[in-house]
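Could someone model S-adenosylmethionine with this protein?
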Amino acid sequence: MEEAAELFGVSIKTFIKLLKEEKVPARKIGREWRFSRKALIDWLSSGDSQAYSASEGEAKEFFNKVAPEWEEIRKDYYDESIKNKIFELDILEPDMTVMDLGAGSGYISRTVAPHVKKVIAVDISGQMLSELRKKAYEEGIGNIQTLENDGRDVAVPDSTADVVFASMYLHHIEEPLIAIKEIKRILKSGGRVFLADYNEHTDMELKEKMHDIWMGFRQEDIREWFAGAGFKDIRIYVLDEHSKKQDSAGKPGTGVFIATAVK
Ligand SMILES: C[S@@+](CC[C@H](N)C(=O)[O-])C[C@H]1O[C@@H](n2cnc3c(N)ncnc32)[C@H](O)[C@@H]1O
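Reply:
Sure, complex below.
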């Protein structure tokens, strides 16, 4: 197992996750996993990078399509408790510039706008952003700037924002650590990230319906990525209300967590 993980250049933990999620050529003989070095290299080289970009492309297409109904759709998956946590943690100041990554139609942007100087709402979906602009206009909100951009490489200078929000965005990103490092770049020194996402789940129907890449996250991984990107004071809060909801099969619903950390 150690040698196989080393061959792929990943930790044992990541390698075990790979064994569960992908069809890696391997056999468990007795209590030990056995691998063929050649089979592992063949498996690696038979992959197709476009298969991954395609799944991200599908998400963009999906969100462009559902943009006008997103506000209603999302209510089935998470409620107002994510917003409430922002105010409970008291992290906003009137002179702040904040960013909302994967802003969608502005669930977070339109909530925080009246409490800060400026919001930069970033999303890969142009339709989501035009929906956000329409709703902000109707609500008399005039301090949201929209930016159609991939969240992994945002066209803003370093140290732009006092707070970066990322609500239900990270599970659409193939390489979360890259997205987290980009958040760190965008934050001012002492600035804070506020991330909301699903706890690790097994709801395949949810994943497919929403074109998700990750089926939620484990707290250990979030901590490891934040620490790896150089964040301090990492805190994770689990929002109980969501865990009690039921999915379509009547099983307990997918819970939501909030992670905050300081640059
Ligand atoms: C589940 S929605 C969440 C929207 C909003 N934050 C909310 O909480 O309602 C995910 C959003 O992330 C956006 N998104 C997905 N991949 C992205 C990427 N690589 N860069 C920027 N935005 C992305 C989608 O277009 C979509 O608007």
